[in-house]
Design a protein that fits this description.
about 140 residues, alpha+beta, six-stranded antiparallel beta sheet, two-stranded antiparallel ribbon, 6 helices, globular
């Protein structure tokens, strides 16, 4: 499981250092794709295959299912970590996530999220966590 928050800079070629604690868990092959909330998702290959199988089971006659599948697959890219511990983020994904200089990598269980520092700060405000926690009870999450 991935966990933790790490800040890094993206270089002029679109490469960013993957935190050492994430590298081993990612393995040799991983998949980078658009994520929800304006970030990017990075999945280890095994987790991507599981996600792929779930998307493949969605009914093709549903417009929202086709749209969801396109969202994740159209921008998906296989990625490898280089010898310096960096991953190259394709330009289309950098543009989607607004990645320019400062990025935040966050471990979220089976995936990593990559955020622009600005979006991370704007999106992840936790002043309503008590209300959210109460709503999660319906999913069986009791704190």
């Amino acid at each position: 499981m991935f966990k933790g928050e790490y800040s890094h800079s993206i270089d002029s070629k679109g490469r960013v250092i993957v935190p050492a604690k994430f590298r081993d868990k990612l393995g040799e092959e991983s998949v980078l794709t658009k994520g929800l909330d304006g970030c990017l998702y990075v999945y280890p290959k095994e987790e991507w295959i599981k996600f792929e199988e779930k998307l493949n089971q969605l009914p093709l006659n549903r417009k929202d299912a086709r749209k969801m599948t396109r969202f994740f697959f159209a921008g998906a890219a296989d990625c490898e970590i280089d010898k310096q511990g960096r991953v190259l983020i394709p330009a289309v994904l950098r543009e989607f996530a607004g990645l320019e200089k400062e990025v935040v990598m966050v471990g979220i269980m089976n995936r990593i999220e990559i955020w622009s520092r600005e979006r991370w700060n704007d999106t992840n405000v936790y002043d309503d966590m008590e209300d959210i926690a109460e709503q999660m009870e319906e999913f069986g999450l009791l704190l």
